[in-house]
Amino acid sequence: MASGDGSRPVGQPLKDAQQLAGLPSGRWMGLGLAALGLNAGSVVSERELELLYGELRRPDADRIERERLADGDSPQEARRATVLGQPLDEIERRGAIPLLAFDFAFRAQASVIVLWAVADEAVRRVIETAHDRAVETTLRWLEEEVAEVRWSSGRERVKPPGLVVAAFKHFENRDGFPLLHTHCLILNRAQRPDGSWYALDTRRLLRNVVAAGTLYTLAMTTEVCEELGLATVPREVTPGLRPVMEIAGVDQELIDWSSTRRRRIEEALEGITAQYVEDHGRLPDERARHGLGWWAAQDTRPAKKTPKRLEQLRAWWKVSALLNFGQEMVDGLLDRCRTAGAAIRARVSPLVDTVLAAVDVAAIVYTVRRVFNRHHILAEARRHLLETLRGRAFVPGLDIYITDKALARHGRRLTAVREGRPDPAPELLSYTADFSWPKRWWIAGADGRPPRESSRYERAQAASLAVRNAIRAARTAVPAAPDGAPATAGTTVLTEHRDLDEHDQAPPHAVDHPGRVAALTPKQRAEATQAHLRAAMPEAYLGGRTTDPATWLQTPENLTRLAKFTQEANARRRLFERPQPDSDAAPDTPTPADQRQHQVPGSGQGRGATPGR
Predict the structure, then answer these.
(1) SS3 state of residue 149
(2) CB of 394 within 8 A of CB of 544?
(3) pLDDT for 24-49, tens place per residue?
(4) Of 228, 394, 425, 525, which alpha carbon lies 20 to 30 A from 177's?
(5) Do 365 and 378 form a contact (C-beta atoms < 8 A)?
(6) How many Å separate Cα 229 from the centre of its chain?
(7) Is the CA virtual torsion 609, 399, 386, 122 positive or negative?
């Protein structure tokens, strides 16, 4: 990793290998460096790597040992004074495998990498600067909000002063195509207030991997779009899964050109999926598809290569792009991106409707997971900002604000407080919600492929849309005129109570792609789509379902049905939560429907993919 994911001859110094490969030297990062005598931004030496990440000893262990031996200490005592926490030999004697560090890899979206690879030097510097700042922002969040030191088998824990991180920047993938990314090796040791060193809380750190990744993507994309005047659009990578927000104007051909690994994985995945169907007699579900994708990625992983200098790589990338796509497409890439970005930014408001954002975040996470924690909501809130603002800047802390609102308004706490024990940490609290649970449906296959079951994310989109439409309808309702007189046409009244601190309410965004009509509501857009499909391909329209996955469960009839389900669920909840009358009469017995609506999900419900997978 330190030499660019390539092998180097035995005995060759790390610094020489990095210079030959044209790679920058590793840099130290983190607020925990001061306790080790290191400075942020200083070069990572080979000896420091060997001591810290190979032996869990201080980076100046050689000097300390010499001084201790000169003072008369034994070799064992001198060496023990340099160890950070429990020595490795003691861990190995217990039969355990020591966990030395965590590798957090941060990489930009494919469209940003294409711009970085073929654009001019000024654009390259903007993208690299945004990448570096986003990495720093994410690491600072991990230090301030996530990292904890644990001891006594995890019963005791405390927030450390900071982390110790060695960062290595790479420029290419294993095929030699552009891939700007940074590996951050987080040392599995941090300081307690008394100065002793202990291991980090591994589970807590790994639970927040997805939230950290969404923070990096949000920060990096926002800065690039603001500096270059760009915007983002959703791009579907895998049918049924969450779209990736890419830079508007970057051609799909250029993205495919740089994503050589994905093409090989998809080709291998077809054969692996066919073998799975033959062995099990059924199509893989969503969790099985994740496992098959990982299997295909491992089978197609090429061997390590000899790294090349960035100047050589950029020249080769530019020539390859020109030969494949022509000078007009490559040289005019930035202008097309700015034109598309200007059209989107002119229609996207910099304000965020926090009420609808909280509903959308809670409904999607609930439908995907059923039972969730705070870090799930936080990751989805950051995705929501990226999808809603399309690269526009936002007020810092807005993701935390939406997370708190989603949990306070739509989350129902499941974690019970045990008598005689302290309250669990907010990170460990489990929640669910009282939204209607959407049913499964099947999507017709395209290009001769078999039909597939709707994914949890597709069902979550339908559920969230229904609840948001119900809120929009409740906000603007025609008021009843006095004395039964008919209401004046066009008058509306705000019927929803708003908190005093929610001053950033804006109309819901209706921006999808440049060229699409932006004034239509989701229901109007669904009606227009259905009318077009009825006229264009009547044989494919069966009972409100089409072969277009984007319109499934978004027909006007289904939207009305889902809104009705939501209203019925809210009515049952209000009936259950209604206070009992102050009388001696026996309380009303809740109906079986109420009991089913409010029962706590079991331990096996809502278990999705593990965090960080």
Answers:
(1) strand
(2) no
(3) 899 999 999 999 999 999 999 999 99
(4) 228
(5) no
(6) 24
(7) negative
